[in-house]
Amino acid sequence: MRAITVVGASLAGLAATRALRDQGFDGRIVVVGDETHAPYDRPPLSKEFLAGALSAEDLALTTPEDAELAAEWRLGRRATGLDAAERTVVLDDGERITTDGVVLATGARARPLPGTVPAGVHTLRSLDDALALGADLAPGVRLVVVGAGFIGSEIASTAVGLGAEVEVVEAAAVPLERPLGTEMGLVCAGLHAAAGVRLHTGCGVAEIVGSPRVTAVRLTDGRELPADVVVVGIGAIPNVEWLAGAGVVLDDGVATDAQGATSVPGVVAVGDCANAHRGYTGSTMRLEHWTNAVQQPVGAVAALLGRVHTPAPHHEVPYFWSDQYGHRIQFAGHRTPDCRVEIAEGDPAAADFLAVYLDPAGNPVAALGVDRARSFGRMRRQLGSRLAAAS
Amino acid sequence: MIYVGTVADIPDGEAVRVQGEVAIAVFHVEGTLYAIDDTCTHQDASLSDGWVDGCAVECPLHAACFDLRTGRPSGPPAKKAVRTHRVVLADGHVWVEETVGVEAEARAGVPVAVGAGESA
C-alpha cells in the first residue's frame, strides 16, 4: 500500500492515522474531516468545557509530535461518496481522492427531534454545538433536557452547576434501562433528584412550544414545562448515508468483522460508525465509546496493512464512563436482560458502589462502578481475562 | 520528605497515594518502588487507582499509560508527562522527596529497590 485515505478527523480517524505510522506505513495519508477544527476530545464538551473549566485549546487531541505523521489534512470538507472498486473518496467540492486503502471513521451525529425546531433548542455533539449551548446557559435559565441518557444527564449536571433550573424528560419508565437494567437505571436516576433536578419519566415530547424562540416543552401527558433552553439527547445516528450504493454493506453503520474489515477489500471502518463483530459478545455491536474509538483503529489498520494485531484482553471489553453530579460512573462489559445484579462493594443508596452483572450461570459479564475506580478497574481486567480464557 | 509507610504497606503490584504539594502515587513493582504524580495529565483520574503492567501504569479512566521510570506517557490520550519523585527507603520505611518547580523538567525521579537502605 502506497497511499491511504482516512475519512473522519476525530478521535478514531486520528487514532487510525497514528496507528498507520506506528505500524510502519510510510506512504501518503490523506485525512478528511467535515469540521474545520483539528481533532479534539468530545467527552469534555458536556462537562468541563461546557462548565468553562477547559478551553477549546485544552481539547486538542494532536500534539506537536503529530507533525511527524505528515498527513495531508482536508478539514472543513465532507466526503459525499465512495467508489469502492477504485477506492476513490469524493469530497463535497468535487475533489476525488484515489488511494490503495480507505479507513471509514465518519462517526455519528446527534439524533434531532423531527421537524423544524425554534431557536434555543440544541443538540450536543461538536465543539460548535457546545459553544452555542454554553452561550444560552446562565444562572436562572430554565433548561429542559430531553432524554435521560448519559449525555443528557451530564448536561443536566453541568447546567445545575452553572445555576440553571433543570428538568429532565425521559420517554422510558426507567432511564438507562437498556445498558444498565432497571435496578441500576433507577440508582443513576436518583442522582438527578439528589441534585435538585426534576426527572419526568414515562412521558415523551409532544411539542416544542414557542416561535421564533422556545418557551416551553409540552409533554405527551399534556403537561407543559416552561423552558428558555432545550437540549435534545436522544441518541446518535451513524454517518454512513454518504456510503449508500457504494457497495459497502451497511447495517446500523458499516458492517465489519472483528478486525474492522468491511465487505470491500481495502476498506475498513472504525469508531462510532462501525458495527463491528465483538469477541466479547460474539455478536456485532456499534459502540459509541471513547476507548473503542482509540483502540479499534489499531486492529483495523493492522488488517489493512496485512498484519495481525492481538489487543490486550481487557481492551476487548466494551467500556465507558460518565461524570455526573460529582460522581464518576464506569461501566464495562455487556449486560443482557437475563442478568442479575450483585452489589460487590459499597452502597447504591450512597452512590458509592461496585455492582457486578451475573449471567444465569452466575458468571460476571459486566460491571458498574460509581466512585470505585480501583476495584472497578480490577473487575474490568477480570472480565477481560475471562474472555481470554474462553478463546 | 513525605512519609509513605512501611514497605509492607505497599504490596507488589499495588500503589498508595500520599499528599505532597500535589497528590503523589507510590508504586511497588517486583521489588522496586516508584513515585509519580497521582493525577493523570489527560483528565482528572487517580493513577494510584490504575493498573500496573510492568513498568507502566494504565490510567483507570482512559487507557493512557505512563512509564513509572520516566513519567512519560507511553500511549494516547495523555500528552504531558507526570512528574517523577525520588523514593527513599530507610529501615523498612518509605519516604518520598517531592520534585518541585523547574527541577521537574530537568530531573527524573529515582526509584529504589525494596531491599536498599536496609541495615545488614
From TrEMBL, chain A:
The segment(s) forming the FAD/NAD(P)-binding domain are 4-296
Statement: the UniProt record of this protein carries the keyword Transport: no
Name the InterPro entries on file: FAD-oxidoreductase/Apoptosis, FAD/NAD-bd_sf, FAD/NAD-binding_dom, FAD/NAD-linked_Rdtase_dimer_sf, Reductase_C
Secretion signal span: none
Q: Which residues form a coiled coil?
A: none
Residues covered by the Reductase C-terminal domain: 319-386
Name the UniProt key words of this record, in alphabetical order: FAD, Flavoprotein, Oxidoreductase
What is the top-level taxon of the source organism?
A: Bacteria
Q: Which cofactor does it need?
A: FAD
Please state what the protein is called. FAD-dependent oxidoreductase
Whose protein is this, by species? Pseudonocardia yuanmonensis
Source taxonomy: Bacteria, Bacillati, Actinomycetota, Actinomycetes, Pseudonocardiales
UniProtKB/TrEMBL annotation, chain B:
Q: Which domain of life is it from?
A: Bacteria
Per UniProt, which keywords does this protein have?
Answer: 2Fe-2S, Dioxygenase, Iron, Iron-sulfur, Metal-binding, Oxidoreductase
User: Signal peptide span per the entry?
Assistant: none
Q: Name one GO molecular function term.
A: dioxygenase activity
User: Taking every annotated instance into account, which residue ranges of this chain make up the domain Rieske?
Assistant: 2-96
Q: Which residues cross the membrane?
A: none
Q: Which InterPro entries match?
A: Rieske_2Fe-2S (IPR017941), Rieske_2Fe-2S_sf (IPR036922)
Sorted alphabetically, which PANTHER family does this protein's record hold? 3-PHENYLPROPIONATE_CINNAMIC ACID DIOXYGENASE FERREDOXIN SUBUNIT, FERREDOXIN-RELATED
Protein name per UniProt? Bifunctional 3-phenylpropionate/cinnamic acid dioxygenase ferredoxin subunit
Q: Which organism is it from?
A: Pseudonocardia yuanmonensis
Recite the lineage of the species: Bacteria, Bacillati, Actinomycetota, Actinomycetes, Pseudonocardiales
